[in-house]
Amino acid sequence: MAGNFSSSLPAGLSTDEASPPWLNKADSAWQLIAATMVGLQSVPGLVILYGSMVKKKWAVNSAFMALYAFAAVLICWVLWAHHMSFGNQMLPLLGKPDVSMAEKYLVTQFEHPSYEIYMPNANFVFYEFAFAAITVILLAGSLLGRMNFYAWMLFVPLWVTLSYTVGAFSIWGPGFLDDFHVIDFSGGYVIHLSSGVAGFTAAYWVGPRHSQDRQHFPPNNIIHMLGGAGFLWLGWTGFNGGSPFAAGLISSLAILNTHICTATSLLVWLSLDMIVYKKSSVIGAVQGMITGLVCITPGAGIVEPWAAILMGAMSGSIPWYTMMVLHKRSGFFQEVDDTLGVFHTHAVAGILGGILSGLFAKPDLLSMFYRSDNYGPGLFYSMSRDKIHAGLLQMMHQLIGAAFIAIWNVIVTSFICIMISRMVDLRMDEEDLEIGDDAVHGEEAYALWGDGERHPPLRFNMTPKFPSFCRKH
Hints:
It is globular and about 60 Å long. The chain is an all-alpha fold. The chain has one domain: Ammonium transporter fold, CATH 1.10.3430.10. About 65% of the residues lie in helices and about 5% in strands. The longest helix is centred in the C-terminal third of the chain and has 34 residues, at about 390-420. It is a multi-pass membrane protein.
């Protein structure tokens, strides 16, 4: 096989050209693995998590919202959104739309403004697509159990185009926030803060679930929910480990810090549940896991492991307080029906991680990752190095970045929802809300129903039609 490989190459392409000198096969292979791990977080990870974490009558719809978004984002990404996020500047907030499918682009070396990256652009396109897709799917967690699927089909491409691309271009690309040097290692702001704020905003415009669903919304399969959570947790190895675009020291540190912070956050959330509610909640443990993953993301490769433990303690306690205490006391939070509490697990944990990254970012790690001395130092290190002004300035930049992402997502998500509402209803009608999956898709997740729960009335007449000789008996 190896001896005949060159004969199978396209005409005019030699084996030397297929493996050019600038290509680092180890880095390129790791990047493809990392991108695939991020993709697995969405499909099947969040598909399983959403389909299991909701009431059984919404299992199909919730899982399908995630699956549709994954496919739709990919097409948008390669047709225009990738270059809007990372291409040549068209506006201070946005890159110029362009197609990312040309061979002459995909198989050439990925060019970064700060340092050399030894892999093709195709790796970068695929990896960043997986990030964009999971952002929209995370947002969907706020809308489960009532959003009109046709409205969701319109919402996904519009939100990726008008919101996600702006956040990515402004913080990761050459956008207007480039001079502020906001620390966001792997998407605490671009992905998690934006999905949390946008999800909460969209939930306001879509409206609440059916009153019975909002009062009683148990997960239909906790074991499957844990399986989906497992894909999410282990997939974060690629989520944070792939951000340096090299299989190097920063990648290894980012992966270890990710899991340290997550484990700490889960244990803290679980402990608080046991202290306050006298029970160890499986759902609570999953929420604590998610907040830990989110909190470490903006600083995964630029903080030390001891800081990751502190970040885990904070992410296991502060979002727990906002979700379990503040949410129940606040009329504002009660008014908006955020199905899975995405605002708390992603927006709160995301901004917390961004601020803590500005506090604990270690100068030499920042230099290794960004290849620049313009970032940091973290406020903690600036105190011991007599650079307190620089540390305070970095903290201010972190707050500016968070404020921009939050405000932009409130405005743009509201605009998208209002525009869609002029074409189709954002929310399903009450009859469909009462029935669930069978009314929306004509399909149900389970043939067997739980003890004590009646099958809801079907929308269509399903009375069996027996042959005439059977009716006599």
